[in-house]
Design a protein that fits this description.
The protein is of the alpha+beta class. It has helices at about 30-45, 50-60, 65-70, 115-120, 195; strands at about 10-15, 20-25, 95-100, 130-145, 155-160, 165-170, 180-185, 190, 200-205, 215-225. The radius of gyration is 17 Å and the shape is globular. InterPro entries: AlkB-like, AlkB-like_sf, ALKBH7-like.
């Protein structure tokens, strides 16, 4: 389990609930590139042929190895119009996004992926898990919501890759109790127990607290309740 870290003023506004754990610099830049490239590969393969062709035509001349090890992280994303972002989720919470449940990682195609995933697995509170990829467009957002207690486990872990975004936590019991956490690329957090079910959480489209908005990839890992399945968003 992650140890609870002190937050710098640069990362935090408000008071953080005790069941929220955060490491702002868990993954190196090289690990971030590998994870983001692998996640994009999986999502891109599931897309329509029309958008696959558009991505092929727009892709950088850099080969895969160069893109992973040399290009800035933001350049691994193609322009927004190369992706088939959906305008709204079935529950109305997510806007301008694409997503998938991940059953396997392309470890053979991306050197360094296995060690990065092993590091991530070492901090998981339990092993019966489900992995979900969520790609937000530059203007994508996740509206305030509380996780479904009847269809979710005790915890959810989020990996942030790409543009810095703000995670906002709002107490359901006290609307004035609000915390905002800057989630830089390479950071991970775990929400568990009360912070999942007694706080609304959202990912803001933009904020003066962050330096603008760009595309963001989230790797979401959660524990699974037997006989239940549910998508969690943050």
């Amino acid at each position: 389990m992650l140890s609870r870290r002190l937050f710098s003023l640069a990362n935090l506004r408000g008071t953080i609930p005790s069941d929220f754990h955060f490491v702002p610099d868990f993954f190196s830049v090289s690990e971030q590139r590998t994870l983001l490239s692998a996640a994009l590969e999986r999502l891109d393969a599931a897309g329509s042929r029309r958008f696959q062709k558009r991505r092929k035509n727009s892709r950088s001349k850099l080969n895969t190895a160069a893109a992973i090890y040399e290009a800035p992280l933001s350049e691994l994303f193609l322009p927004d119009d190369c992706y088939e972002f959906l305008q709204g989720h079935y529950d109305g919470v997510i806007h301008n996004y694409r997503e998938m449940h991940l059953t396997s990682w392309p470890t053979a195609e991306f050197p360094g992926l296995v060690p990065a995933l092993s590091r991530l697995q070492s901090v998981l509170p339990s092993s019966n898990i489900q992995t979900h990829l969520l790609h937000l467009a530059s203007d994508g957002e996740i509206l305030p919501h509380v996780d479904n207690v009847s269809a979710s486990g005790r915890w959810i872990l989020g990996v942030s890759l790409g543009s810095d975004r703000i995670l906002r936590l709002e107490s359901c019991a006290n609307p004035d109790e609000v915390a905002e956490i800057l989630l830089p690329s390479g950071s991970i957090y775990i929400q568990s127990d009360t912070v999942r079910y007694q706080y609304k959480h959202s990912i803001l489209r933009n904020s003066a607290f962050a330096n603008g908005a760009g595309q963001r990839m989230s790797i979401m890992i959660r524990d699974v309740l037997e006989h239940h399945s549910h998508t969690n968003h943050s």
